[in-house]
Specification:
Low-confidence stretches: 253-295
Strand content: 5-15%
Mean pLDDT: 81
Radius of gyration: 38 Å
Helix content: 55-70%
Shape: rod-shaped
Strand order of the largest sheet: 4-3-2-1-5
Largest sheet: 5 strands, antiparallel
């Protein structure tokens, strides 16, 4: 291409930009007509814009739910932009579980408190693992498809929409030039320009319309992704509940704030960290003072010890997890306690530490 052709092309391009600018300005001032899209097309545009806005909001808030710490979200985004592998983090529940296990081992797994801390810590670690799996599934099955839509199809739609607006300005500018043409030659040239602009506009409108109608399939896909997200949440919460039920079964059921039978807690269980009404939910209420030899026992049953128990005084009996003992109730004994026998020794033991065998 020679220099003259390049200059003519440049001049033509500059002229087109000038015509667009004039048309845009006159439209804003209300002195120029504007080609309006049909109602169906406008509805498609509005639905696409709503889809973009709400997808961005849902995506952002879901990220906040999965990772509440904004600094860590920013760090993850940075790793993603740099295409580097994200750091494996310990969840808060896992960290709590590790602290509980370590403290329980330090206090001694043979003590009631130490053993309870270990069991609680193990449950928290399981919850943390379930949380990690939930986050991974949610990112892969819900967040990533939303991101792919915004960064792929939605960007293409926005690009074609802007191009359609450019073609619309060219069309209206050509209509304006035709109205202003005076000479036959000028009218003939304006009519040719108008036909070309109309063809370009119609072609671009059809391309944009096809993309906009694809939002239907996008919504159907996002619905499937939403179902996957909810299913992952249900699985996660069900796992958490099951871990807590299992933990409660191991620790036993404790009635916080009540002390049936009027018994008092042993001094070793009284501390500033006790819960409401000075009742420690990890320890049962102490049995009332009784005379073992004077009591009339009921039928003896075999029981399995669920976890270790350290006797608080001479009337109680220490227990080891998984050992088998004989138990029976005694008149006047707190219903939360049973009399136990093992190896020719007697003493009261907490019912919640036992599994009665039929």
């Amino acid at each position: 291409m020679d220099m003259k052709s390049k200059l003519n092309k440049f001049a033509g391009g500059a002229g087109t930009l000038f015509n667009r600018a004039v048309q845009f300005t006159e439209e804003k001032l209300g002195s120029a007509e504007k080609t309006e899209l049909d109602a169906h097309f406008e509805n498609l545009l509005q639905r696409a814009e709503k889809t973009r806005i709400w997808t961005e909001r849902v995506l952002k808030q879901t990220e906040a739910v999965l990772q509440p710490n904004p600094n860590q979200r920013m760090e993850d985004l940075l790793y993603e932009k740099l295409e580097k592998k994200k750091k494996d983090r310990v969840t808060n529940a896992e960290q709590l579980g590790l602290y509980m296990v370590d403290s329980g081992n330090d206090f001694g797994p043979g003590t009631s408190y130490g053993n309870a801390l270990i069991k609680c810590g193990q449950a928290e670690i399981k919850i943390g693992t379930a949380e990690r799996e939930f986050v991974t599934q949610s990112v892969n099955n819900f967040l990533q498809p939303l991101r792919n839509f915004l960064e792929g199809d939605m960007k293409t739609i926005m690009k074609e929409k802007r191009l359609l607006e450019v073609k619309r300005l060219d069309l209206d500018a050509a209509k304006s030039r035709l109205r202003k043409a005076k000479s036959p030659n000028a009218q003939q040239q304006a009519e040719a320009d108008l036909r070309a602009a109309q063809t370009e506009f119609d072609r671009q409108a059809e391309i944009t319309k096809i993309l906009l109608e694809g939002i239907n399939s996008t919504h159907a896909h996002h619905l499937r992704c939403l179902n996957d997200f909810i299913e992952a949440q249900m699985t996660y919460y069900a796992q958490c509940q099951q871990h807590m039920v299992d933990l409660q079964r191991q620790l036993g059921s404790y009635s916080v704030g009540s002390n049936v039978g009027g018994g008092n807690l042993p001094n070793m269980h009284q501390s500033s960290s006790a819960f409401t009404n000075n009742i420690n939910p990890l320890e049962p209420s102490a049995p009332p003072a009784i005379q073992v030899t004077a009591a009339t026992p009921t039928e003896k049953k075999q029981a399995r010890v669920l976890y270790d128990y350290e006797a608080a005084n001479s009337s109680e009996l220490s227990l080891l997890a998984d050992e088998l003992i004989m138990v029976y109730s005694v008149a006047g004994l707190d219903p939360d306690w049973l009399m136990a026998e093992k190896k020719n020794t007697h003493g009261v033991v907490p019912l919640t530490y036992l599994e009665i065998l039929e």
